[in-house]
């Protein structure tokens, strides 16, 4: 009798959401309501007898058409949401520890003043101390700022790592970012206090160097250090057109921790940049890391991290391997995406930086189709996925960069370093397929979205790993201008894809199917929300100021249709937000910021994109600052919006706030006097809701005296423009 073979250890499970049937039924009903709405719009257009009624109805028709288009696209996320669970404890039953795949970690930074070196160091230390064989971990830090301060910080970090890694192993701590660990309620002992003192000493050294603007002689302790820092100017930044700087700070074959275990490889990379060659921002930096790491270690798995996104769970690589090593998924799996989560959010997340829909809810929906999009950080790639489709590999220029090439030399070997410097040159990519067929894709400021989209079109799929405990935690901007600027940059990048030859509708639907094409269209056309937001923030209000009704009366059947469309959309959105761990207050903040982004980031993003399209240059790429002063942080914790800097992004917000408040007051007076009360109810409700959303703006303009109040220059500009809009629009809305 043959012995019964036991089933292989379970690495992961998949559970479809119980909301799927409801989502589909609701979508069918809501679609009928949308059709009815456009039937009414069409009737009204055909019956228009004046230019005013035709113009108003047409504007509402176009706005509702965009809202309907985005709603249809958004239903792709609700057709088959799934939840996964992984069992990292079973990895050792599937593969020996010695046979685990190598892991190359990419961390990108660009400005030591906006992205403090100690924040980047904490990110690196948190992954260097993973519960994973240290001889299989290599951390590559891309410094596009070419800063000696960042290099100095990592040289100090390597010395500290020799003590920190054994401490993490012995104490089995979860928080392995030193900054976060020592800020929490850690277990105190003489050993812990010694480690903390070492960390504080390192931090003070690094911050002192950044503060004085140079690496002093007292910090250069060896001839090797002197050679390393000789490549920089006296101001601490690399010389123009300098050759690529690649510094092996820690070598697993050479460097040991205090217990004799090898330290992970730690490599500093500052690529060569020249104004005559495009450098393609973050995508270009990542592609340099792909090539440099291929020359030095060529691990089959790559983890990409933002410089401020530290690991919050030391077993995260094992969770990713639960999918990467699953034989049923290996054939076409490109990457495993973890949600982007944050620490330091204030109670109500006033700037909606959590992005719960983008980073969690929608990715759960995509996971039931072909997989989540690449979110730019917290993602484990199979290196092979960066070289063409699963069945059609695109070979690089040299076999030494191929994903299946085995590096048999140490990372400090002269031939290895020579190749690494060569592939980090500013002109290396000329006449190659990098950025088009190989690596992270060029052509969009949103390189993460663009890369994930192209991978799906090539035949790859991805998975969403959503553990209960956050795998990674990042910083959030505490400044409204930084938030809006970041969203403007995303808007431009998304439009660059939407209006390219790889349009998500004409190209995407054919390549990845209808639902995935719709899902990617939702992202690509996200900035077009600006049109309905601007329309509904100004047009009904200007009509209300003149007592003109543009919505159905309360007694009309069409009124019930509008109520259903409003409550149905917002009700479903609130329900999804709450069941994924949100609160009512944070949901309110989220929809308020949706309006604010539409009046600023999306509007300016669309404008800059089309100016760029006709050859008018814009200000380019700006790094989002991760630095806040104490007063600003205090205001953020108190829930106060930061308007202190005069910016064009705030002008439209202030205009909308002024016009809506005036409209609500005058509309309420007209409502009490008018015989057409039923016709003004919807406009009053809409205007009142926008006034509620604009309370932080009124507070900043009139009630605050701190540095975060609205700048007088912004208020005056907004008042003049709002008055001009009212004067110009009044003849047409009477």
Radius of gyration: 28 Å
Helicity range: 40-55%
Please state the overall shape, judged from the principal axes of the Cα atoms.
Answer: globular
> Which strand order does the major sheet show?
5-6-4-3-7-10-9-11
Strand % is 5-15%
Count the helices. How many? Answer: 25
Q: Please tell me the overall pLDDT.
A: 92
The structural class is alpha/beta
Number of strands: 12
Unreliable spans are none
Q: What do these coordinates show?
A:
This protein has 734 residues and is an alpha/beta fold. It contains 25 helices and 12 strands. The strands form 3 sheets. Strands 5-6-4-3-7-10-9-11 form an 8-stranded mixed sheet, with helices on both faces. The longest helix has 27 residues. The protein is globular. The termini are far apart.
Characteristic terms for this protein:
734 residues, alpha/beta, eight-stranded mixed β-sheet
